[in-house]
Design goal:
Oligomer: heterodimer
Distance between the termini of chain A: 41 Å
Low-confidence stretches of chain A: none
Number of strands of chain A: 11
Order of helices and strands of chain B: EEEEEEEEEEE
Radius of gyration of chain A: 14 Å
Largest sheet of chain B: 7 strands, mixed
Largest sheet of chain A: 6 strands, mixed
Mean pLDDT of chain A: 93
Low-confidence stretches of chain B: none
Radius of gyration of chain B: 13 Å
Shape of chain A: globular
Order of helices and strands of chain A: EEEEEEEEEEE
Mean pLDDT of chain B: 95
Strand content of chain B: over 45%
Strand content of chain A: over 45%
Chain lengths: 113, 114
């Protein structure tokens, strides 16, 4: 089955700097890659996603890039703000008969004011 | 607010007991997914229902069962509870059948087994 790994497990950046979170996946059939943000005491919130027919997608300060050959995808956050501090999860799935989202372990991002 | 509601927010119960967690999907969504989140295992997919039928299964224990009702709300039943079942339980909903549709998560139910 699919295996999704996130690196690093924690990340601390200065407010205003950029943050990059990387994920690798194992199943070459995976074709959908969402990113979720989870704040303390809340459920995961979908912030951006990308499909395998696209290499990059942007939404204001957030972007995601996908390298299908290397089987990795990354979340880029520019001009970080304290409210970006949260746990970020990447996930991957295919569209097979019993397909399911497989999540990485999560990374804790801290933005220092 | 994702539009997905879950009740109760917190649940404290004893080992051996049975509990029911409830989820109402976003308006228009036909799929409901259940996930377990624990510190050591992360977010683990348990089961998916689409329009009342079971569609996909993950690492769901035999002590756990779920169903989706005609009004599309879903319930997750956990029985013979063990200390290790203590976790956050999330449901998510999406409009489509496959898992590559956007999934929107509810606020979760925190289960504590003592």
């Amino acid at each position: 089955g699919e295996n999704v790994e996130q690196h690093p497990s924690t990340l601390s950046v200065q407010e205003g700097d950029s943050a990059v979170i990387k994920c690798t996946y194992s199943d070459s059939a995976s074709n959908y890659f969402p990113w979720y943000k989870q704040e303390l005491g809340k459920g995961p919130q979908l912030i951006i996603d990308i499909r395998s027919n696209v290499g990059e997608k942007k939404d204001q300060r957030i972007a995601v890039t996908l390298n299908k050959t290397a089987k990795h995808f990354s979340l880029h956050i520019t001009e970080t703000q304290p409210e970006d501090s949260a746990v970020y999860f990447c996930a991957a799935t295919d569209t097979g008969a019993n397909s399911k989202l497989t999540f990485g372990k999560g990374i804790t991002l801290s933005v220092r004011p | 607010d994702s539009g997905v509601t879950q009740t109760p927010k917190h649940l404290i119960t004893a080992t051996g007991q049975r509990v029911t967690l409830r989820c109402s999907p976003r308006s228009g969504d036909l799929s409901v997914y259940w996930y377990q989140q624990s510190l050591d295992q992360g977010l683990q997919f348990l089961i998916q229902y689409y329009n009342g039928e079971e569609r996909a299964k993950g690492n769901i224990l035999e002590r756990f069962s779920a169903q989706q009702f005609p009004d599309l709300h879903s319930e997750l039943n956990l029985s013979s509870l063990e200390l290790g079942d203590s976790a956050l339980y999330f449901c998510a909903s999406s409009v489509g059948y496959n898992s590559d549709y956007e999934q929107y998560f509810g606020p979760g139910t925190r289960l504590t087994v003592t």
